[in-house]
Amino acid sequence: MERTTLIILAVICAIIFIAPLVMYSGLGEDDGYFGGADDAAGEAIEESGFKPWFSSIWEPPSGEIESLLFALQAAIGAIIIGYFFGYWRGQGKEE
Amino acid sequence: MHIMEGYLPLTWCIIWFVVSFIVVAYGIYQIKQIVDETPDSKALLAVSGAFMFILSSLKLPSVTGSCSHPCGNGLGAALFGPAVTAVLATIVLLFQAILLAHGGLTTLGANIFSMGIIGPFVAWLVYKACIKANISSTIAIFFAAFLGDLLTYVATSFQLAFAFPAPSFGSALTKFLVIFAVTQVPLAIGEGILTVIIWDRLKAYKPKLLDKLGVLAPNEA
User: Fold this and answer.
1) Annotated pathway, please (chain B) (predicted)?
2) Which of A56, B8, B15, B53 has its CA 20 to 30 A from that of A93?
C-alpha cells in the first residue's frame, strides 16, 4: 500500500477513538460516561438478583497498579511485534 | 467482553469449559503441525499473539459513551484458523484473569469461547470466503477483523442471555447486546483498520511465508 494510504488509515482510526472524547467532553464517570462495558454487564446481572459466587484470587490493589499491569501487557505485545517487524525489514533490505 | 469472575452459574461455566477445552486442545495439536511443516511461521504465531496482547489491553472510548477493548483475534484467525487463535486467546485471557482481575478463572471457558472461538471462527469464514471470491487479502482482512471483533461481543451477549434469560431470553439478549455489541461497533471498525495496517506490512516483509500458508488471494500469490 502507498505510504499516504497507510497514514490516512491511521488518521481515520485516531478520529474514531478521539471523537467520543470530544462528543462527551466534560462528562465523566460520575455522570455515567466512559465506564467499562464489562462492569455495566455485571450490574445488569446483579439487577436480576444473581449474586457472584466466586471472586478473583488476586486483584490489583489500586488503579495505579492496574494501569501498570495494563501497560505491561501492551508493552509485551509491542516488543514482540517491533522485534519481528524490525528483523524482517532488515532481512528484506539485505536481500 | 469479559464475563466477570463468578458472574456465571456453575453449570454454564462447566459447559463452556468443556467446549473450549476441546478446541484449545485441537489448536495445540495444529500449532505442532504448523511449526513442523513451516518452522518460519513460529515468528508469525508470536506476532499474532502479541497483536492480541496489545489490542486487548487498550480500553477505548466508544461513541456510545462507554469503554471497551478490541480483541485482535482476526489476524490470527486469518493466518492460522480459529483453533490456533483459541490457544493464543487463552494465554491473553489467563494473563488478564490472574493479574488484572479482568474476566476470571471460573468464566475462562466462556471467555475463551467468545474471544477465542466464535470471533475467530467468523473471521476465518469471512476471510476464506473473500479470498475464494478473489477479493484482495487487504480488504478481506478488514472485514475478517471487523466481524471477528463484533461477533466476539455478540457471542458474550448470547452467553449472558442464555444464563440469565430474565424476564425473557429476547429481552435479556437485547439488554446485553446494547451493552456489548453496540458499544463495540466503532471499536471493531478501528480494529479492522489497525489489522489492515499490520497486514500490509506483513505482505511487504513476508510475502513468501504468507503464500506458503495459503492465505493470499489467487491473484496475489
Assistant:
1) Cofactor biosynthesis; adenosylcobalamin biosynthesis
2) B53
